[in-house]
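Format notes (please read before filing issues)

Several people have asked whether sequences and structure tokens are stored in separate files. They are not. Every record keeps both together, in the order shown below: the sequence lines, then the token lines. Line labels are part of the format and must not be stripped during preprocessing.
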Amino acid sequence: MVKAPKTRQEFAEVITTAWNRALRNVIRAGKWLLKAEVKLKPSGDFHRMIEDDLPFGERVAQRLMAIARHEVLRDPTHESGLPRSYITLYELSKLPPPEVKELLEYKIINIDTSRQQAEQLAKRFQEEGDYWFREVQNAFTLLVRFRERKVAKKLPEMAAMVYRMTTHRGPLRMNLDTLAEWIKEIDTFIEDKRRSEQGRDELNALVRTEEHRRQQLLAAKRSKPLSAKEQRRRLQARNRMYERHYGKEEKPTSGRRRNGGPGFHYAPPAGD
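Then the structure lines:
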């Protein structure tokens, strides 16, 4: 039986050991950090331990603790389906637990989920809300567009695809009767609202509220100051664009679109 750590050195030892192992112990490292924070922070030893005794810094420690606080990510029953990178797990910790649980259940989050995919999920949730509402909207749009294509009228092929899904030999189980009833419920709800002026106003108010929220999120995103890293990335992209137009001899200067090129002032060679 492992003796529970009490001192700064003992906490540093168990956290370092956990850090050097697999996913299970990455989460365990975060849990030990949370315990160490409670025990050592009043004396100031917690930050000194991170600075002097651990193989990672403050930023990594905060990420590990965020993972350990997340009730789904820290649950051992979900371990087999989680990505192995702690950075990816940290991005997933920005999603609410119910959302992560559902995405794990449907294999949208899995062991192969990359950091970029996790960042995109977290970003889309912050900007647009629930994952499934977005996906259903996209699915309906795709179905409507598909219905307009000639291939959609090949009923034998369509029937074979649906039958394969219905008999569980495809990627999804599908019950057309249940799906049709659900769509009919939605359609009936809308039609009931449309019959009265008050109901139409309610529907329009819902649409306006959602659109207003989305525009606010986009405006906040546009007004957010750029990080130094993003500024460097944009400057490099501008330089590459300029070189494609004018070669490497002429250098762009900052400014809006002018006659000298797309988005740059023209900087003539020295001596002109």
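For reference, the curators noted about this record: Residues 8-125 form one domain. Residues 117 and 232 are 23 Å apart (CA to CA).
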